[in-house]
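Memo to structure team: turn this sequence into structure tokens by end of day. - J.P.
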Amino acid sequence: MPFRLLVTGLLTAGLLFCGPVLAAEKEEAIPTLLENLRFEKTLKFCGETVPLGDPDVRERMEKELLLSLWDRDQAVLWLKRSTRYFPVIEAMLSQAGLPDDLKYIALAESALRPHIGSPKGAIGFWQFLPETGRRYGLTVNNSIDQRRSLSASTRAAVGYFSELYQKFGSWSLAAAAFNMGEEGLQAEILVQGVSDFYRLYLPLETQRYLFRILSAKLILTQPERYGFHMQAGDYYPPISSSTVEVTCYEETSLTVVAQAAQTDFKRIKDLNPELRGHYLAAGTYTLNVPATTPPGVQKRFDEIHQKWSEQRTERIYVVQPGDNLSTIAERFRVPLAAILIWNRIDLDSHIYPGDRLIIYPVGSRTDNP
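Reply from structure team:
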């Protein structure tokens, strides 16, 4: 067969073979960059109209939308996580009489990740700084950080946004104040003699801030419009849990809590991201547990805690002259990191003869207390 005919035949076969695939790709094609920018002439944030007729405003909006769409894997995760976390946020905003659009601020701030932090010390779904979180009722200490709790941090955000709107009379300015701080925004309004977010010269991050939020809103309200053809099964399910009250009379391993809830350590940490470390300090807690957890958590907790406490007392090692953490770990054939966790110390901690350390030898029933 002549070479030209052979090539023609292969190309024809390839086109026939790829036909259905190409058709499927065409059906769910990603819009061109220019098509992405042909959004509605009227765009609103919390009921306030965005002045897209202003060329500067439109350019800022287009830039942030293109940047959001460029990071398509992140946009997919926004969509998938929205069904897990938004129902809680939406319900709390609605109950407080606040605009639903405020939920997109949490998305822009944290991508709905509880543990994400910033170099400035902001953490959690709404990226509260420690002092701001405490001002709005959040517990932030070495054992509990409620900035990571969806319900607690959203309750604080509701309080903060309510005050910001009352102070500035505009949701766009309230969002800007949430990002840069109300005193800084008040100062710029006073100095510039302008009280319109779109006409204020603010820190560059704040100038972009509202447009990042609006970009998230456009993508989540019109995913197909931007080439995200999601099916129902693609979204993450809402959090399924129930709450129980647990009283600890002394510091207790979270593994004891997990066993009382008939689940594992990771599940307790995932359902209660505000809990820091491996131990629960003495006190009474309202905890999230799997929805399938049978009644009687406190009773089981008391029984398991008693056994754990007895075994813990039996595992005390008195530090001897010449000991260090590494040699002790070697002697008992346990990871050095485990000794640090069991005793709530760090690698730089000094130990001295006579100090008492808790050690669970390998093979004991409480290797991971």
